[in-house]
Amino acid sequence: MQYIQPVNELTNAESVIVGVDVGGTKIAAGIVDAHGQVIGQVMTATDTQDPERTLHSIASAVRECIETAGIAPARVRAVGLGIPGMVDPERGVCLLSVNLNWQNVAVRSWLEQELNLPCVIDNDVCAATLGESIYGAGRGARNMVYLSLGTGIAARAIMNGQLYRGAHGMAGEVGHLVVMPDGPLCRCGACGCLEALAAGPALALSAQTAIAAGQETQLKSYLQRQGTLRSEDVFAAAADNDGLALRILRQAGKHIAYGIYLLAMTFDPQIIVIGGGLTMVPSPLLIEMRARAEYLLAQSSTSRTMFSAETLCISSMGRDCAIIGAAALVARSNGQHTREKQ
Amino acid sequence: MQYIQPVNELTNAESVIVGVDVGGTKIAAGIVDAHGQVIGQVMTATDTQDPERTLHSIASAVRECIETAGIAPARVRAVGLGIPGMVDPERGVCLLSVNLNWQNVAVRSWLEQELNLPCVIDNDVCAATLGESIYGAGRGARNMVYLSLGTGIAARAIMNGQLYRGAHGMAGEVGHLVVMPDGPLCRCGACGCLEALAAGPALALSAQTAIAAGQETQLKSYLQRQGTLRSEDVFAAAADNDGLALRILRQAGKHIAYGIYLLAMTFDPQIIVIGGGLTMVPSPLLIEMRARAEYLLAQSSTSRTMFSAETLCISSMGRDCAIIGAAALVARSNGQHTREKQ
């Protein structure tokens, strides 16, 4: 990318990257060092009233994060941004983001002018995939898949050492794979998509539906108190051994396992890294997901060749994953990670 | 590959490649010109008694094909071989081929010594995928998937302009994806694999099972006459409007469509080319396959972005597909097709 200058050995050793996780409700900006460690971060609410206000809140978060960390602006090599939506990374334009209410927003040029720093943007799952590939569990793997489980479900793959986008930038969109044809309606228009069955909002909705149908659960009191349920509530209730919450998480884990099975059989990766909001705590979802994926992949001699218990791993980056991924966009584009040079 | 010498402009214009389809029952060797046209071929039975006899029958086929075509041996640039099984193309070794009864056979070195010609070997589906990518329907597509429907079912993908093999050389092995958990036993040990439901032998077996259960069909007379059924019989009976044969082919088409759906959703290819023995004639299998794949991919706004009627096409190479694919291994390894340079 043209704005990023080659950095000499000395400067490089001292330089940092600002990684920005641009979410629909909050923006997290962090200082990331050469080892992929977040050495300081700030968080702010996302102003989605209009695109320019959103861009202003991003710029403020970046500035604040640099100031708070006490880093001299000259030490910041570049800013990487992971955006939830369709992104044209070459042109630096966000084509569409439902969460941010963006359509054809020239993010890179606006921010570069405002911040006077080179910027790199990409889709957030692409960014997280690169983050795991450069700094995380996928380090050293020429072929890996990253599966993000959160408000949405999506995967991306590193193939022959390169991020693979597909013909329409949609490769790995297993969240919208129909796995239960008579399942619940998904926001994409299909019924029974993996996302409509197992993403964060689906877990909360399942609980609300069960409560409405008269099922006994401690989630009822959460609902009465809050007026609505979040996936976090389901995880909390499951940790407290609530029967409904346990059933919901196990069922979701089973559906996700099928997605993992398909990703393994098509991409044949060395490693599948699972990350995102639903993986932050050990839970029956992750236990069931692993057990079921191992069962599915043990069925055939073909898949047994491709898969062992070590193939599947949970990201160890936790909540920093999105910031580190955004920083990885810069590391990659600068050729720091030679496997990713394109 | 080290044995292949660079060819100068003049020689290149006149040189040909010998492409060899090494099957479990027959070996077909053909002369392929620079445009991927088969300009002459010979066919011989495969002697699978021991690996050396098989190699001798391959060498004989190559020699005979060159002689029959009246080509001066100096004009033959190299020999490409597509082998049904696990192949290490770098070392030129076939690791395992159940059909050929081969295990760790150093195919390339043996043939190069015997024929005094450079040889390139690879898995037959990899070869066919390259063939479609270089000379066929996938020409010009940076991302394509080739799905082979025959005695087995398998797919391979071209991604970012390169053949993608995966971590264990198994990427695209959708033939052993379980699509009906209570389905028939597959040779891989699983039940209800796509291959056990829709590959050639499965079609013949379905018909035999139905006849044993007392179903009326003209295939009964085929069975009485031949003692067994082949998939070709099912296609012939369907062409004659036999009810059972039509049902079997439609059902197979429906199962294959699910495989196409998964390949589209994971790889997001520009084009999906379908080839192999089951695609040689227009049939209810292909009609149902297309209709069902289009239905599945029309369900979600996400998949609609990725798929149009033009995405799916049937190979136009017919029975020459395997020979042309084998020749493509040479064309690719020699950098003739720059997109494929690795």
Automatic annotation (TrEMBL), chains A, B:
On whether Transferase is a keyword of this UniProt record, the answer is yes
Keyword Kinase appears in the UniProt entry: yes
Which molecular function GO terms apply here?
kinase activity
Ordered alphabetically, the record's keywords are: Kinase, Transferase
Pfam families per the record? ROK
Please report which protein family the annotation says this sequence is part of.
Belongs to the ROK (NagC/XylR) family.
The entry's protein name is Glucokinase
Q: Which organism is it from?
A: Dictyobacter aurantiacus
